[in-house]
Each structure stands twice: as C-alpha cells, then as structure tokens.
Description:
The protein has 9 helices and no strands. The chain is mainly alpha-helical.
Amino acid sequence: MAWNATLTKLNNILAELYPNKDQSEMIVDMAGIPSGNIAFKDAAKSNWYYILKEADRRNKVEDLVQVVQNEYPDNEELMKLYSSKESNEKPIEGESLNEENEWSIKEIKDFLKNGKTEKAIKALDNLSDKLDADIETEVILLSARYKRLNKERIMGTIDDNHLNIETNKINFAILDLISEID
C-alpha cells in the first residue's frame, strides 16, 4: 500500500508517544517486525516514517498498532484513528457480504488463503450463529485460542516456529469446521 493520510497521522502519534530511538526499536521488536531493513533515525518523525514503511511492506501495521494500544489503551487519537482505519478499510477480493449479511464458505476459505486467520474466524463466528450449538462452541474456542496466541506473539513469549505451527493448527481446524458445514 502506498503512503496515505492514515499512516501520516499514525506517524505523528507514534513520534509523540515514542520519541526515542530505543523506545521505537522495542516496539518494532514487540510487534514482530524484523528490524534489519529499517533505517532507524534519531529524529522521531523520520524514525517512525521508516518503521511504518517497513511495517506496511510486511502487512504489520495492525500488529504495531496493537502493541501500542496495549501500552496506551486510553489514547483517544490512536483509538479514533485505528477504528476509522478499520471501518474505511477497502475489502480484499472475497470480502463482500452476501444478501443475508453473512460470509460464504468460499470467502472464509479465501481469508485463510490470504493469511487472514482472524477475519476467517470472525466470518465463521458470524455464520455459526445460524448453525448448531456444537459448531458455535468450537468457533468460540478457536477464537479464544487465536486471541491467546496473538497475545503471546505481541508479548514475545512465543517463537516464530511455534507461532506458525499453532496458526496452521487453527487454520486446519477452521477448514475442518467448514467441511462439517458444507
């Protein structure tokens, strides 16, 4: 994605919250962004510009925002920006709701194919409301498992290999549920 107004606003917020290079390096690490390609600078706005460019290139801006929101949960600017970013986000192919305002099985599979496990879980949860209680329970458990895994990733208490294995297990469980529904 090209640089946009949301990234500019985020850049300004982050430069205020984390003006020191050391602080920004810590946030980059906590968000799981490899720092090798980032040109860290002493000037806060320049520093965050390069960090956000790399985060955007790796589709890690949302992860970075989550880390910052965990440290500053009451930051109104960040909450407004993040919630408006989500509501204005353009859907990727396969993200349109059908006439009944629910996701199709194909679209859930497309989310998984595009590495969007969280969106797949949310879509499956929306769909599970209309299915039997056992499937709905399994979706709730998968959602909790994914959130726990994401929290461990943000806190840095899980290595990348284990994270990938657990994410793949969740994805497989989603596909298994979908085959029961289909």
